[in-house]
Structure formats: C-alpha cells, structure tokens
Amino acid sequence: MAEFPILYTTKAINEDGIHGEAYIEDGMRVPVASPTKPDPGSNPEQLIGLALSTCLNATLEAIEKEHDVPHQSKVETTVKMSRDRFGYQFFLDAKVTVPEVDLDTAAHWLAIAETRCPVAKLLGDNVNVKIHV
Amino acid sequence: MAEFPILYTTKAINEDGIHGEAYIEDGMRVPVASPTKPDPGSNPEQLIGLALSTCLNATLEAIEKEHDVPHQSKVETTVKMSRDRFGYQFFLDAKVTVPEVDLDTAAHWLAIAETRCPVAKLLGDNVNVKIHV
Description:
The structure is a homodimer.
Chain A: E1 6-14, E2 20-24, E3 29-32, H1 44-66, E4 74-83, E5 88-97, H2 103-116, H3 118-123, E6 129-132
Helix pairs in contact in A: 1-2
Protein name (chains A, B): OsmC family protein
Family (chains A, B): Belongs to the OsmC/Ohr family.
Pfam family, one (chains A, B): OsmC
C-alpha cells in the first residue's frame, strides 16, 4: 500500500471499559454505558452505526456532486445485538435513500459508493452486514 | 441465528453527509466534518476507532472480572486513512495493554476477547486491521 500516502491519523482510546468515557487523543470524549442497562451513554453499537452511516452518506454526497445534483441522500443503519456461541454479535442493516433519482440509479450509485467508502469496505463482506437501497 | 434473541437495537442516521451532524434516533448527536479539513467535528475514522476500542476493552474488563482482578486494561486504536485504487481505505491498529498480568497472559486474554467482542469479529479478518498486545 506504499503508493498511497497516509492523509489522516487519529487515535481512539478506551481505558474505562463499558462504563465511563471513550475519547479521541486531543479530541472529543464520549460517555459510554452498557446498552443493556438504563444508564445514559453511547456504546459500540451506536458508534459503529454512526461510522457506517456517515462514511457511506459522505461518499454518496460526493457522487451526487459529480452528477451536479443537490445533496439529498440519507443512510440509516440499524444495529442489533445478540449473544452468539462465544460472546456477542452485531447485525448491521444500512438503508440508503437517494430521493432525487429512481431506484435503479440509486442502486447503481450505492454500488459505486461501496467500492469507495472505507467503512463499507471493512464491513461489507461480513454475513451480518447488509447494505441496500 | 434465530436461537439468539435480539437484546438491543439502535438506529444511527446520517442525512447531512460529511459536514453537519450524525445522530442516534432519540439519542446523541455528533458533529461531523471532513478529516482533511480544519473544521471541528468527528468523522468515520474516530467513530470506528471508538467502537473497536470500547467493545474490545469492555470485553477485556469482563475477562478481568472473571479472574477477580481489578480492571486495568486499555485499548488504543490508531486509525489511518489513505486513498486506494477506487476511493479511500482505513488502517486500524488496536494496541491492547493489560498491565496487571504478564505478556503471555495478556495475549491469551486478548485471543479470548477477540472471539467474544462483536466489533473485533466484524473487523478482525480484514487485512487492514491489526489487533495485538
């Protein structure tokens, strides 16, 4: 990968475990709590969902721009959690809407976005992850 | 997967693209901005790093508890971004420290944690992701 220089680096740290804060080195702090307890706070489910929704929608926004249409796309990622044989598992379902074009065009743009968006590339081959219009 | 009931569901939404806000339905709002611009705000790099650090450290915390040792583990995930052939790619490097045990024990606990932590399971097989003590 040496032909592609690094454009950005960040460091995300958790010291507290599931109750407390996670934080970016020299950056934002996010209160975290167990998703199965009533305590307020975010959790890995929300954070990975926000990462996928934001990455994919930013990529769709770039594709809209290439087609000279105003940005209207939206990505909603539902994250579900259950146990599995050894611990826990997440199920991600990212629903994409591009209201200014027909469904075939939206599906085509999404296919392009999935080749560009780094979070979709990290997650997309997993059987627990669905990305669709 | 029908044998494992869903224990938690959340929905993470991005409408704005890379500049604006991403949000959890009925929950937190996160300002987002391009990582290559000086504008303040989080980004997919930070959010996926926080998801992995928090999930993995929460799992290590549970393993510490099973061994009756006080929680001291820490996970620092460095996320780097570069272009690739079709768009962008992320490189994730999660560095785990468990200061109260020796390195072999820490490596063993990490191996167990990787079989339980849902974010590690979603990301761990990717060549761009490294998880290590």
